[in-house]
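I hope you will forgive my troubling you with a question about protein structure. The matter concerns a single protein, recorded as an amino acid sequence and a row of backbone structure tokens. Please examine both parts with care and let me know of anything in them that strikes you as inconsistent. Thank you for your consideration; the sequence and its tokens are set out here:
***
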Amino acid sequence: MEADYRNLGFGKLITQHLGHRSINALYSYSDVLKNLFFMFSIGGDVLDDLNTLREQMKDHPSQRVCSPDTVEFVCKELKQSTEVVSGDKGAVHHINEHEGFNQLLPALSLQGGALTTTGSYTLDYDGHILENTKADNAFTYKQTQGYYPVVLSINKLPVYLQNRKGNTPESYNQLSLIRQTAIRCRELSLQLSKFRGDAACYEKDTIEYLELNGFTYYIRAELNGTLRIALEDETDWQSAILGNRKVEVCSIKEKLFNDKAERRIVAYREKVKGQLSIEHSNGYRYHAVITNDNAEPLSCIEFYNQRGCEGEHHFKELDYDFGWNKLPFDTFEMNTVYMYATLVAYLLFNIFKYRYAAKTTLVKPFMRLKNFILHFVTLTAKWIKTGRRYILKIFTLKDYRPLWAT
């Protein structure tokens, strides 16, 4: 794997976007980020597991592993000041992000081959409540305490992160984030053709920006009174199968956001089982998506629903495989840097997973980290020195030869 890092140009890329550490520092930024990836790759989930990795790697002839204290020093060096913004209704928003890391994320995916300049991609926008007991957290709309980071991603690969405290809604300043991400991807020659977002993106400015810049968008529509009445009055519903459910779909044109122009709404409804609520007055539950795609309604709805695995599933992996649910530091700013570092580890995992899956049957492209460790990483091995050189002697029935031959 060390050769894969060199071929990737990882150290040069990290230095380009994050800069150099002090000349007296034993570990560079790329060393620390690489060590964190190794830690997660052996099943570690808290920062202190670096000590376990150090013990396991003590006989390695060249690979050094930093201590948890070194990671803390690095996070202190890289932390950025939090922007504090007063809202219109008295709310105070705390925003923290790192420009260098946000430039690094898409560049790493592109340089690693996980994204290419010849593809046409969908940009997903989503927020994630990260519950914690840190002293500087804030209450979320779910009445829990924590942070509320927003991530923009392509094919589950994060390309932009902005961390916020829990009281800042997902919709806050979203157009600016979408615009910055689109500009950065354009600078890297990454082609973005589609956009998906939940109801937090159901805003006039955002939709107009997407239309002006040639995006085909799919955004969950808020079922306000006018739209609900229009759907209840609609008579041209077609039976369809959505997943494993029997639903009815339709397509209508509605004037939204007090505009004169009409926009397309594709919707589906399903019969409500059990007790009805005031929202289900006619016995149906309605779901609507605003889009400028002219495809069949069911096709648009299915594509929007794919964001569940392509635009949201990576949060589950970040929480349980890459340490987001066990943030190590007491301050918002340092935890933000740590979150960026784990995103780099997550991208490296996907880059190497895709590469190895193309060469050996031990690795599958859809593997989660746990399966990757079980089927690929775990084996018995020993470093031996013979003929004035070190040789890694492994004891396994797994066939790694296709990787060594390349």
